[in-house]
Amino acid sequence: MANPYAADDAHRVVQRNGYQGSSSHKTISRPDYAGTGYVNPMHLVKNREVGHYRNSAEGRPLQSVQVVIPSPHRGVSTINPKTATPVSHSASASVVPPLDYQLLLLSLAEEYFAAAGGAGSALALLQRQPDILEYQRLVATGLSCLEASLKYWRLPPLLEASIQLRYATVLHEETDNLDDAEEALSKGIVLSGRLQDFDLKYNMQHLLARVLYRGNARAGLKYLDKLIEDVEAYQHVPWAHQEVISALNQLHSIFATSQKHSDAAVGAIASSLEALIHLQESDSAESIEQAQRAIALARRSQLDRAVGDAPKLVAMIHFVDLCCTLRRFEPSQATAKMQAMQATLDALRQGSLLGDDNSFSIPIGHTAGMEPRSRNGVISSSSDGTQLLNLDWIPTQDIYSLGFLLSGICVAHKNTSDGQKSESMLHEAIRLQKKLVEEVVAAPQSIFVAASRHSCRLLLKAFMHLHLAFVLCTRTAWLLADEQLQQVKALMLVLGLHALDDLNLSVQYLEGVIQQAAGNLESSLTIFQSPSLAIAQINRLTASQLRMELASLSALNTLLIIRSRPHSFNTISSMLDYLEPICANHPNKAILTAYNFVIATVSAPESIVRTKQCLQYALQAAKFCGNKQLLCMTLSFLSWKFFRGVLGDQAEKSARTSHQSAKMAMDRLWMSVSAGILGDALEIQGRGKEAEAVKQEGRIIAAGLPPAVQRVETAIGRA
């Protein structure tokens, strides 16, 4: 046996396990462990007095482990050899039994990891630097114990391979030391291959693919491609599913494999992921159609018992299916799918079927001669011997808050006509998410896993506030909308680098909308024409779908502001050229309505035919998507454009329709506008008293608008 007191070598072990690379959280970095007050594992075998840990979640610092054990070469190490009374050899042997130092180091390593993991959730939330350093010290010492056991003892091959897997797993989860993780996995893969332990081998190869992907995405995917070929050639079906599911470009292969082996649940997951990829890739009609085809396959699999027995998988299918419909903005279908989703979540909640954590399992095909054992938790067996593929998704409570968010978005277009249900749902989503953000998880977990989850929850909460702000804008509650905007900005400061570009763009656009509503037109123009939102600076080949849409909406708002200004013809013409290929055939009916409405307002006075066509398209699209605000704007402009100064019942009918539509939309600006149009129509017919009453109603409403808006000469603006 090698010398267990090789302290210098062990010291270098700890130094090499330093954290290199960038931080995975704004305030949680992965510093070099060599300077964090590590405990050398070779010094641990000098004593045997075990201390205890205290959880920093209770506000107390973490306590390190101290061990007092006998020296392996002589009696008890705590006895001073200069003053000790001589003891016979036989007596000494009867008092001190031999110790298994390998087992001791492995046990110590797990105790250190458990002590660190027990405080991971609290540390991610509280961000106390002394406790974070203590956490790093505990993990570093645990890693050193594992490496010392590998370096200084000759271990049975199976045990050595298992330790290599554990060592590499901690390196992957806790550090940026990918080279050592890759080296440990490579050694372990060779050992498990010699032992023909395929379950252990595939566990390691699965982890190695993730390690490689962190360093180089292309290398990780290339390794997966090779691994997929191997597992399919050897007919190791469970691992074929797991490896393919890690490579997004192999989703069709997953579905084909699952159909071949009657693994309906795996096919449902593959189809759901494929639908998500299409939705993220583009908002084009083709991408949405492909996403709907994929989710239809997942829906078909729902009839299988294996899918029904995985409640979180059912919830995932509902979420993705609803997102597909929302992309097209088809209100009737979206409402039906929202109700189905809510019924499913209610049933799952009442039956407590979703569990308490973020994992779920699905049954998969059995491979003869291959019995999976619990190692990294990827493949396992149930009590009846069924092989299970274990997957991580979002925690159970997050599923409910996400359900409220999607429901609120689904009914946002009719918030003003159904008792403001959208606002209620979004407020409930925010309430649930606030509890989750402040939650300290009792189960042990890595500080970096906890920090990542905390960031995701903060990000989701920011999007909830953002959607609520937009919903408030639809009923012109501008002050309340601005309050929600400030909440989003505060969360973005906390998120720092974790705030997505999409969130930044959305906040910027919303700020421009609120400035425009307040009558601060120059400020809103500055925002709408900024480099990130200017339509002329968008590269359609590389820009994200959200950026293209927000840039298009910014351009439409800009046109409404500058259309009556002198010398704006060239600017308007140029912006229309940019907008046409993006908006003319947009699958989202709301954007199509806004585009046709703006085209009608900026068309030359002599272009009567084009104006009528655009207004007709806008009306049809607004009715289809149920957007009350766009409908009242279009009706008001139509009445003003074609029935202004006209005597007859048609003019009055048009004006009354637009006024009633504005009331349903709860849009104070357009209620005032339509009241003026209706008053003019009544006045022409000689009904002066009635006309004055309507106009007075409009003036009262207008008095509540921002002062800058009240100075507008006409409701719609100068033609």
Q: In angstroms, what separates the terminal alpha carbons? A: 94 Å
Determine the mean pLDDT.
77
Q: Tally the helices: what do you get?
A: 32
State the major sheet.
Answer: 3 strands, antiparallel
Pfam family, one: Cohesin_load
Organism: Heterodermia speciosa
Protein name: Cohesin loading factor
Keywords: Cell cycle, Cell division, Chromosome partition, Mitosis, Nucleus
Brief rundown of the structure:
This protein has 32 helices and 3 strands. The protein has 719 residues and is mainly α.
Supply the key terms:
single chain, 719 residues, mainly alpha, 3 strands, disordered N terminus, mitosis, cell cycle, cell division, Cohesin loading factor
Can you walk through the features of this model?
By secondary structure, this protein is mostly helical. Among the domains are: 1-81 and 93-154, no CATH class; 394-490; 500-571, no CATH class; 584-719, Serine Threonine Protein Phosphatase 5, Tetratricopeptide repeat. It has 32 helices and 3 strands. It has a 3-stranded antiparallel β-sheet with strand order 1-3-2. β2 (379-381) and β3 (387-392) form a beta hairpin. The longest helix has 28 residues, at 447-474. It is elongated and about 115 Å long. Residues 1-93, 243-248 and 713-719 have low confidence and may be disordered. Belongs to the SCC4/mau-2 family. Residues 17-26 have a biased composition (Polar residues). It comes from Heterodermia speciosa.
